[in-house]
Design a protein that fits this description.
The protein is α/β, with parallel strands linked by helices. 31% of the residues lie in helices and 25% in strands. The strands form three sheets. It has a six-stranded mixed sheet, with helices on both faces. It is globular, with a radius of gyration of 26 Å.
Length: 406
């Protein structure tokens, strides 16, 4: 660590300071030696598997940072600027993890250095997340195992199984007897969401490593839980529900993206726990039916927390891309207890493409050109998310993630 050098007396033989210099020097002595950092690091969460370890630093404001690696022994070093630590960071990561130990210490007075002592060489990646509902600013650090990446083949997983496509479930809102919102010119939300959904399916199907499924392909009515069940039956990696907002004031405009709220997750957890004999595969293939009440509740809570975190991440990527196509109504991912977002095991987002109650936005929503732009923006956000989070048994992981990590 860098040490502060004590002030030394003037060297003998130097000329004395003049009056003006003495005044300036005295003024400097009256200044504070350091200014407390404005941003607080309030905690850190960790998760790990054989291929990567993830650290999520919770902050009450944005920060600048840099990350680098050292050898002999292998370490990953994270420097976070202008931040103060308000508690203790965990010293030991959960198993399995590439990280042996976590150390931290102030650096330079107003910065923090976090050192990850590694079991082997690793490749770090970092990104920042903006506040979303119950979550504040976050700095995410992924530490990737290059051995696991290099050991995979493009056509098969390390276990020899064929790689699969990423499955995206697209849910055009409303349909059949449920028209949804109705615009001033008479357009129906159910028709617009289906048109955008069909275009989104085409652009995703045309993206290597992706396959899209629609919860409805025509003007038919579907219950909300039926839509969730269809996504689960398709073994979807992501669920996207499409809507067009409405408000009594026709001046309201812009796009929004939603993820599930914690209150919504709690109510859904109670439902699944009540039916846990039928709740197999909700927590990474572990059935809840043979677990006692406390263990089943803990397992489901862990699964839901990870799913909501992933939903917020992909929602943030989609929102940024839609911002290049349409005005943004809410500049961060919102959270609400929408039923269609309540799958405990599938990251799920709801996209309000625009306000159908706004005459200008209604006209744009009806055009093929704007529908295509929306579809492509959503696709780009989804792809950006999976560049970091693609499951290791997918084609996209082998053809994009592994290739770029090697």
């Amino acid at each position: 660590m860098r040490e502060q050098c004590p002030a030394t007396a003037p060297e003998r033989g130097r000329p004395a300071l003049g009056p003006l210099r003495l005044i300036a020097a005295a003024a400097l002595l009256l200044l504070p030696l350091s200014v407390a950092a404005d941003t607080a690091l309030t905690g850190m969460r960790m998760s790990a598997n054989d291929e990567r370890s993830r650290l999520v630093f919770d902050l009450d404001g944005p920060v600048a940072h840099q990350v680098f690696t050292l050898e002999g022994p292998h370490r990953v070093v994270l420097d976070i600027e202008d931040v103060r630590l308000t508690g203790d960071l965990p010293a030991k990561p959960p198993a399995p993890s590439l990280i042996r130990r976590i150390r931290s210490a102030p650096r330079g007075g107003d910065s923090l250095r976090v050192v990850l002592d590694m079991k082997q060489a690793a490749r770090p990646k970092t990104f920042l997340l903006q506040p979303n509902g119950e979550h504040g600013h976050r700095l995410v650090v992924d530490v990737i195992n290059p051995t696991a990446v290099a050991g995979s083949e493009p056509g098969k997983t390390p276990s020899g199984k064929p790689r699969r496509d990423l499955v995206i479930a697209i849910d055009p809102g409303h349909g059949g007897k449920d028209p949804g919102a109705i615009g001033r010119s008479g357009s129906y939300e159910k028709h617009i969401t289906l048109a955008v959904g069909q275009r989104l399916k085409r652009v995703l199907d045309g993206t290597p490593g992706f396959r899209a499924v629609l919860t409805r392909e025509g003007d038919v009515y579907m219950g909300l839980r039926e839509r969730m069940d269809k996504a689960r039956a398709a073994q979807a990696d992501l669920f996207i529900s499409l809507h067009a907002d409405a408000f009594r004031d026709p001046r309201a405009r812009g796009s929004s993206v939603y993820a599930l709220s914690l209150n919504g997750a709690s109510s859904e957890a109670a439902r699944w726990l009540a039916e846990r004999e039928n709740a197999a595969d909700l927590v990474g293939g572990v059935s809840l039916g043979d677990k006692d009440e406390m263990l089943a509740s803990v397992l489901l809570d862990l699964s839901q927390s990870a799913t909501i975190e992933s939903s917020l991440e992909v929602g943030n990527e989609v929102l940024q891309e839609i911002g290049g196509v349409n005005r943004i109504h809410k500049h961060s991912v919102q959270q609400a207890a929408f039923v269609v977002l309540k799958s405990p095991d599938i990251p799920s987002i709801l996209v309000e493409a625009a306000f159908i109650s706004n005459p200008r936005e209604e006209r744009r929503l009806q055009t093929a050109a704007h529908q295509q732009k929306l579809a492509e923006a959503i696709r780009d956000g989804v792809v950006d998310y999976f560049k970091r989070q693609a499951p290791r048994d997918t084609r996209f992981y082998a053809e994009y993630v592994a290739r770029n990590d090697s």
